[in-house]
């Protein structure tokens, strides 16, 4: 059990028999009454985001979350296969379990599988990934200094806004937290 005063962003807690990750929290001390903690929680099973307020004296159960480094192998229908490089054990996840991470997943990529006991909750992908441009409009000569952008479709199907000088075949570094272009790889 931990006190709500010890909350940190990214901490995983158990509330109402469900697993929640703290996205954001704020300690509030009103002039009248007792202090409380206002928090934004994300459900690790459903992906739902909820705001919840805790009294400052309240205690919650900290969830035991394990991460296992695995390599993404291939997709077969709706199943995505991962392998533990130490034991060669394979794990199959569905598109629902992967969520937004599907936009950045490449074969042979190393990811962290999030587990609670024997239940697989999802994956954590690196903060940045390098993806190849498969489709974009050609840059128009003299248009590179204006600072504009154009859409580009990457090898995973993700569409991002890129500068005019990016061409088909370029490998780009993409931020996985918000899906934005960072630089050429």
Average pLDDT, rounded to a whole number, is 84
Largest sheet: 6 strands, antiparallel
Number of DSSP strand runs: 16
Architecture (CATH level 2) name of the largest domain: Roll
String of helices and strands: EEEEEEEEEHEEEEEEE
The outline comes out as flat
Strand content: over 45%
> Termini, distance in Å?
45 Å
Helix amount: under 10%
From the 3D structure, determine the CATH topology of the largest domain: SH3 type barrels
CATH class of the largest domain: Mainly Beta
Strand order of the largest sheet: 1-6-2-3-4-5
How many separate structural domains? 3
Give an account of the 3D structure.
- With 185 residues, the protein is mainly beta.
- The protein folds into 3 domains: 61 residues, SH3 type barrels; 60 residues, OB fold (Dihydrolipoamide Acetyltransferase, E2P), CATH 2.40.50; 57 residues, Beta Barrel (OB fold (Dihydrolipoamide Acetyltransferase, E2P)), CATH 2.40.50.140.
- Helices cover 2% and strands 54% of the residues.
- The protein is built from 1 helix and 16 strands.
- Strands 1-6-2-3-4-5 form a 6-stranded antiparallel sheet, with no helix packed on it. Strands 9-8-7-10-11 form a 5-stranded antiparallel sheet.
- β4 and β5 form a beta hairpin.
- The protein starts with a strand and ends with a strand.
Which short descriptors sum up this protein?
single chain, 16 strands, 6-stranded antiparallel sheet, OB fold (Dihydrolipoamide Acetyltransferase, E2P), about 180 residues, 5-stranded antiparallel sheet, 3 domains, SH3 type barrels, mainly beta
């Amino acid at each position: 059990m931990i006190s709500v005063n010890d909350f940190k962003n990214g901490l995983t807690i158990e509330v109402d028999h469900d697993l929640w990750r703290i996205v954001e929290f704020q300690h509030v001390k009103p002039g009248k009454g007792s202090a409380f903690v206002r928090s934004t929680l994300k459900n690790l099973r459903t992906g739902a985001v909820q705001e919840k307020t805790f009294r400052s004296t309240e205690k919650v159960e900290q969830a035991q979350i394990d991460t296992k480094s695995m390599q993404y192998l291939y997709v077969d229908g709706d199943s995505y296969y991962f392998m533990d490089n130490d034991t060669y054990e394979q794990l199959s996840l569905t598109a629902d379990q992967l969520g937004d991470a599907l936009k950045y997943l490449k074969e042979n990529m190393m990811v962290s599988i999030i587990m609670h006991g024997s239940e697989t909750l999802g994956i954590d992908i690196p903060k940045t990934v390098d993806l190849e441009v498969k489709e974009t409009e050609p840059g128009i000569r003299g248009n590179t200094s204006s600072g504009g952008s154009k859409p580009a479709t990457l090898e995973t199907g993700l569409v991002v806004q890129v500068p005019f000088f990016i061409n088909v075949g370029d490998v780009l570094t993409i931020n996985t937290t918000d899906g934005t272009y960072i630089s050429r790889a």
